[in-house]
Design a protein that fits this description.
The structure is a homodimer.
Chain A: H1 4-20, H2 30-33, H3 37-49, E1 53-55, E2 62-64, H4 66-76, H5 84-94, H6 101-116, E3 119-124, E4 132-141, E5 144-151, E6 156-162, H7 169-182, H8 188-206, H9 210-226, E7 231-234, H10 248-259, H11 261-265, E8 274-278, E9 288-297, E10 300-309, H12 314-328
Antiparallel strand pairs in A: 1-2, 3-7, 3-10, 4-5, 5-6, 8-9, 9-10
The first copy, chain A, binds a DNA duplex through helix 3.
Amino acid sequence: MLGKRQNEMLKIIVEEYIKTAKPVGSKSICDNLNCSSATVRNEMAYLEDIGYLEKTHTSSGRVPSELGYRYYVDNLMKPKELTGEEVLTLQTILSNQSLELSDAITKSMEIISELTNYTSLVLGSSISDNRLKKVEVVPISDNSVIAIIITDKGHIENKTIAINENISVEEIRKMVELINNLLVGTLIDEVNKKLEFEIKPIIGKYIKQQEAIYNMFYNAFNEMTSKKDNYHFSGKTNFLKAPEFDSADKVRSIVDKLEDKEVISSIEETGSGINVYIGDESKIDSDVTIIKTKYVVDGEEGTIAIIGPKRMKYDKVIGMLEYIKGEIEK
Amino acid sequence: MLGKRQNEMLKIIVEEYIKTAKPVGSKSICDNLNCSSATVRNEMAYLEDIGYLEKTHTSSGRVPSELGYRYYVDNLMKPKELTGEEVLTLQTILSNQSLELSDAITKSMEIISELTNYTSLVLGSSISDNRLKKVEVVPISDNSVIAIIITDKGHIENKTIAINENISVEEIRKMVELINNLLVGTLIDEVNKKLEFEIKPIIGKYIKQQEAIYNMFYNAFNEMTSKKDNYHFSGKTNFLKAPEFDSADKVRSIVDKLEDKEVISSIEETGSGINVYIGDESKIDSDVTIIKTKYVVDGEEGTIAIIGPKRMKYDKVIGMLEYIKGEIEK
DNA sequence: AATTAGCACTCAACTATTGACAATGCTAAA
DNA sequence: TTTAGCATTGTCAATAGTTGAGTGCTAATT
């Protein structure tokens, strides 16, 4: 544990660096601590020894290390309350009765992205642990129907599918009935396997255009369940304007990762509370921090996250996420 | 019109530059033209005079100007046929019966993005000139329904909406009936205006929870019709790996534009045929080219586009777009 | 009239070299 | 324990010199 002055000093250095992005020298902070630059240097050397600060080169000022940020977040920083104006803006969205919850969350996170100038992400939970509750089909026109899948946890996916002229609505209805009788309760991920091994062998008895109808459903399920697009970014490139992202390679590499569905779904938070992943821990880039939290509302889960530079206004962002999490969970 | 050798030369220079990204010097191409570097220099000076070539500095090799690319595309280049393998890959997608057309297009453009290493974009036409054909509502659970809008041109939009406990399905049904009686044929963009001025004043007679139901539909229409998200990118950052995108600012600025819905919807092509927008004409960046074409299939329109560096393999890309356009329009 | 060889010239790109500066670490005194 | 002082270190920006690829132009050649 650090002494009082050391705590104070680390806090000042981290916050100064967050503000200016420049290494912090001993002189610039002696006023705040009522001591000479030499004293500051001695303390700085100690903080560097124990791994909380780093130098960019032998004669440079100090920069917080990942450990330093961690200590700052865990011990020195207090989440910042939102301003009245911010609360107001968010309330108009959150209290809109006719917005579906997930839309309200997405909209609020859009606002937060604007307020902070970082990137926000809303990530619906993967539906792979959901079970099939019901399938419905709504005929739309002569050659298309909408298939709707409903899961036990309240997920609804729907997809318009084209139908081939020699398929009758009646036959589709029969297929739906079969599925609803035999596959309800199946894990979403396994529906297609069962479709293949349990339904396919027997549909010949009930349905003429077996092959076509089978394929139609198989494809529709495939698309709906493999659809990992269950996320929504806002301000995707906001934070890249920070000076640490000054090389084209770095920008490309980060943008690439944020385009990659694998990477995005790995952002899903499983722990509780608000979690901070600093630098390499973010799995995006050593200069990136992700702050995220899981929310649970009547069985429906999701992750909300803010992505920004490691040099992020932790207090502000954590404050906002706490607020949003609180609001949506009640 | 240029002479034979000048044509040949411009072609060589453009193609060489496309391959290497380095300004082309006189020496490097005299072999191809069977003449000395001095002769090449004379001709080059002429091509520069008439605006087809440029120098990056007084003693550098030549680089095609925008006009030069244009001349190349219009007069010197021949669209390249696809390889057998490429045709095969695309056919498996395009001939899949149970894929809705728009999905098939999206998938083929994904493939093309991979084959070319550029970015592909499928942009559904804006639905603002569509007219309302029918509204349907499917109850899903106790507190949600799916609203489906169908337009005269075959567009289908659907959205899950939350319902407030004191709204009965019966009342929603009445509202739908009202809409279907009074608003069919209205331009999508004007539906909400009519909803407000023609439906709202009279629903009191038929429906108890007027306010709530009205809001519910108003919001749903809003979301569905203002949804400009009717596009699909693939390989969004592919082409940014080219050496001309070497500054962080440039990369950011382009990525920003590709995130901007305004910019994207402005990519919609209105002309016929395959059109090439070189450099500044692309409206994205002076180093970017967009090649695009409109497709029309039973009244449904859309744009497919390839976005890449100005130094793009025009022959390959145009060949591919011609192929795809031909396939989907038949 | 078209082509070419030859030469002077230009500019970007690279490599040192330098001085100013902002920090540092360390020592010795307060 | 704190501080003043000083040698030391590495960055940054400016300057200068070198090289090489490429040009334009002129005069000779075909």
